[in-house]
Automatic annotation (TrEMBL):
Protein name per Swiss-Prot or TrEMBL: HAD-IA family hydrolase
Co-factor(s): Mg(2+)
Keyword DNA damage: no
Signal sequence range: none
């Protein structure tokens, strides 16, 4: 029986109104580096971001991106611009505010999100979600981020639950599904359009059906 539920944040409970590639381009422009828009793409950003999951901010991410380039941009300005762009573009997936509130009547409910402390905290401030969960964990304040087992151990500790009685709900095949499964949790893969279910997923749900279908899925696990 499932007694606790952990959620990912980005692209699970909240999504940006503009594409991530557009947000990065907007941040490069606003941060004083428009000449890098056609040079620093989303793939390069994700590679750099993966190297700094436990950072306090995105400053080292942009410093890494700028390092091989002949650019005068300041990584601090770029990190600030990107944080503002991403945060202001976020909207909750329809129905998830009530979903999380309703689930807390039956389960312990937590959040485990990868990202710098400043960036993810700004999102939670913007969405007003700090008090929506029984426990919140940001990889920037942990020894490691998802898919590392230490990230899921922190979530389980905050929930006060055992892995076998805990479900993790997320969109990323490796960070969320494989990481949670390797840590012994049950897994629910949130699928966007054209996404394929992860092999480790115990159940799947379309993102736009998350609020309607997750309660029944949890009861079936």
């Amino acid at each position: 029986m499932i007694r606790a539920v952990g959620f990912d944040l980005d692209d699970t409970l909240a999504v940006p109104e503009r594409s991530r590639a557009r947000l990065l381009a907007d941040a490069l422009d606003a941060g004083g580096a428009p000449e890098l828009i056609d040079i620093v793409d989303r793939a390069a950003y994700l590679d750099a971001h993966a190297n700094h999951r436990t950072a306090d901010s995105r400053i080292p991410v942009f410093a890494e991106l700028l390092d091989p380039l002949d650019a005068e941009a300041d990584p601090v300005d770029l990190a600030d611009a990107y944080r503002e762009a991403v945060t202001s573009a976020l909207v909750p997936v329809p129905g998830v505010r009530d979903l999380v509130a309703d689930l807390r009547g039956t389960y312990r409910v937590g959040l485990l999100t990868n990202g710098p402390v400043r960036a993810q905290s700004a999102k939670l401030d913007y969405l007003g979600w700090w008090d929506a969960f029984d426990t919140v964990h940001i990889s920037g304040e942990l020894p490691a981020g998802k898919p590392d087992g230490r990230a899921f151990a922190a979530l389980l500790d905050g929930l006060g639950s055992d892995p076998a009685e805990t479900a993790f709900v997320g969109d990323h095949p490796e960070e969320d599904m494989r990481g949670a499964a390797d840590a012994g949790l049950r897994t629910v893969h949130v699928l966007g359009e054209d996404d394929d279910p992860a092999p480790e997923a115990d159940a799947t749900v379309a993102r736009d059906r998350l609020a309607a279908e997750l309660p029944g899925i949890l009861r079936s696990l």
